[in-house]
Amino acid sequence: MAAEEVCMAPSLSGVEGTDTIHLEQRSNDSSAATENQQQCTPVPAPIKATACTYTPEDLEGLPELAVRLLTAWRPLLERINAGCSAPPAYEHLAEATAVVDSVAKELAKDVELRQQIAQTPYMWESLRTALIFTRNHLFCVFGVGKTGVACPKRAERAVDLATAHFQLVRNLCAQVRSNQQDAWEQGFYEPMEEIISYLCSWLMCMKKGCCINMRERVAKCVSMGTQMLANMMTGNPDVQDKLWPRYFTESDLLLQLINTADVHQLTYVLICILNCTMMCRDRCMYVIGTAIGRDLLKVLLDKAEQLATVNCNAFDYVYAIFRNMIELDMTPNIMHALCHGRDPNRKHVLFQQHITYLRLLDGLIDAQPHCDSHDHSPPSVMPIDLGIDTLVLLVVVLRKTVDAVRRNLEEVKDLTVINEAPRSVFGLDLEGIALLLHCIGRVASELGPDAKIKLMNAHLGKSLIDLMHFLNSVQPRSTIKTLPPTRQNVSSQSSSHASTPTASSPTPPSTPPMVAQQEPTQSPFFMLKCDVIKIISNLSYEAKEVQDAFRLFGGVEAVLSQCAIDDDNPFIKEQSILALRNLLDGNPANQALVASLRPQGIEPSSQRILAEANLSARVDDATGKVRVGPAASDTRSLPPVNFSQHRATSRIESQDTRPASRVESLDTDESVDGDDYVAEMTRQGARVVEIEL
Fold it and tell me: How far apart are alpha carbons 233 and 276 in whole angstroms?
């Protein structure tokens, strides 16, 4: 019996990585037990419970369920009052487990029954003592020997007993605030915390595939304990205010549970966190302002990244937790908390947790209902209101991230690495810039004039123009990329050689070989210019002061320079035209600036494209118009050109799949008006490459 009463726990540092972590029947040899005990680390000493004694006569007249519980607990209470953690016999332990489990299921059906049982004499004191006995007995069973248990059957019974009691407390506290208060005053959370914390450590030490049956029982016990903790606090701010700080200053139980629980059991932990933080900024601050809380915050974001591809409800609860904090305008706090302890002089600004959080923020903003003056139906998603502090913080992060990208680019000697492995140069900063621009652009469309001015005072306008100039330098406009080879191209090339067999190929192949189509390499700066233009457009809409500010920063010219086709920024021409409209609307100064502009020359890339078609362009000094004519080296008149052939030589893309008609010949003796040329090609269904001013 002495060996059974030893309260020892396996040393986590001692058993980690070994092959002996399994359940097995051990001998009762005292010398072997002593040798094994020396390799173990003691757990806290057994908790001494206040004596709670009653006789069968004391139970007369009590509710039937209460009598069953108190009768089943009597052998356990007698043993713990005598200073012994082991039950007198197996049947007593099995009976207590069965009775507690049965009563717990009855309580789940009736709220009034929970209140009635809670008012029964001896109930709360006896339940506390039973929990303490369960805790001491479980440590006794698991703590003998380096393998962690002395007997698998006893270990299963100990875990089942704990599970039943956790279920009982869980159901007692459901929707009964007085029971929640009594459970807290009795300190039920203390033995529960120690049991769950120990079992979480046991699960982490066990190797996968080992002791499958025992692992399932332990996981169920941990899950039930988590639900017990959640029900003790849910809907009761008084208990939440008393218990919640404990798990960020005295215990890391929540962090243990998240790291240990599988995808499905994780849901209960997330529900507990969500219920305690819902619409309460003070309790949210524990997640951000403490060391344990910051670790918990990072683990939650890591879990969100993993759960996004798993079909379960856990991701929805992670999303709800961060949505709640976003609605409380805690984005600045979260972004700063994720940087806590990082090197302030680090090469890259953003980390994976930043990116995951920005994705959640971006998804939340993108899910907001669009403003529609004609739709008066209630929105399916309640809108959120991001505070100006959050938007200013996003602007500050954008500026710092752009500066970091610029510095890292200056250190690159081989520019090919930018397209091949951009993360090796920029880390996650480019992804962060794209997310920041998208978030700011989406919110900017809903802002009033005053909020827009505050963002401009935070240097958003200048940052956008500087970013546009930077992108122009690292990502020149790409008009039409070379199409990869296809079967049709290979067929047309092979047909020209089919009638000329060679010695190595006596007969031409009947079917040309298939060449895999490869997509052109996408620029790491893809669509960033479009995002910048969208923000400029949204900010300048019906905001004269913002329009004036962009004029001073050179924003009007920057937008005008993007009124052209760019394969790396689809639809940037159309977006720039809209942005230009918003910059000029109701602003005579901006209109006068545009009117004063004169063409200075032809953009080099446009000249190269025209040269492939044996054409050239120039600016007429007298009229200021752009005129297109034959290349200077070609004195022949151009024959009538079929549109399909013209597409292959001049690389002007068609947007119409119908057979194209012919274009009239161009007279070589006189130049062609650029406007007439564009109009004619547009009539034929072509997408003409615009000429930059």
Answer: 7
